[in-house]
Design goal:
This is DUF4159 domain-containing protein. The protein has 5 helices and 7 strands. It has 207 residues and is an alpha/beta fold. The protein has a 7-stranded mixed beta sheet, with no helix packed on it.
Length: 207
């Protein structure tokens, strides 16, 4: 679906996934624009500077090589939306799910609707996503603390291809937001988050 041979042309767009169920799909409001800016400056990508909102069941989802999903609350995929998301992901698209705390119990059963035959697997620290332009030898960085749990990066792997990356107990998207959005923010953690995000984008574009 996506024939991507370079970082320079054509222009690409990042999508934010809008879903039903009442969860705050709009969370981390400044995250994607900052990630876009960081990637365009440091990876020489050519993303449009603003994110676009795309609904799970929309045909427009196929216009995005990368779609970001976040929230704290409930998620509901209809059967049509689950089929559409599966078609998008098996056809070359990529979904990054970022648990903004409390998302886990809602998103896992919905992704099971999309891929009933697959299970989320924790990606090992030597997985390529952690070793792109920036090296993360211990895996996913910890950006915000909630329950004292270690950050984990899970994947759904379809026919040998990583189609969905799920960041848990990390708050990666929080780290992409404007500095000072959250009490206790540090420039060091924000840079780690942006670099990990850039690794994710580089991985998608070179696989």
């Amino acid at each position: 679906m996506f024939c991507i041979s370079s970082f320079t042309a054509p222009s690409y767009k990042m999508g934010r996934l809008k879903y039903n169920g009442g969860g705050d799909w709009y969370g981390d409001r400044t995250a994607l624009v900052n990630l876009i800016k960081f990637c365009n400056e440091n990876l020489k990508t050519n993303f449009q500077p603003e994110e676009e909102v795309v609904e799970v069941g929309s045909d427009q989802i196929f216009n995005y090589p990368f779609v970001f999903m976040t929230g704290h609350g409930n998620v509901i995929f209809s059967d049509q939306e689950a089929r559409n998301l599966r078609k998008y992901l098996t056809g070359g698209g990529f979904l990054h799910i970022d648990d903004n705390y409390g998302f886990d119990k809602f998103i896992r059963p919905q992704m099971k609707k999309v891929f009933p035959e697959l299970e989320f697997v924790e990606l090992p620290t030597n997985y390529a996503i952690y070793h792109q332009k920036y090296n993360f030898p211990t895996g996913l960085p910890k950006i915000h603390e909630h329950d004292g749990k270690r950050p984990q990066g899970f994947g759904l792997i379809y026919k040998g291809r990583l189609v969905c990356f799920y960041t848990y107990e990390c708050d990666l998207g929080n780290g992409w937001e404007d500095y000072g959005t959250y009490a206790g923010d540090s420039q060091e953690a924000r840079l780690k988050a942006l670099r990990m995000g850039a690794n994710l984008i580089q991985y998608i574009f070179t696989k």
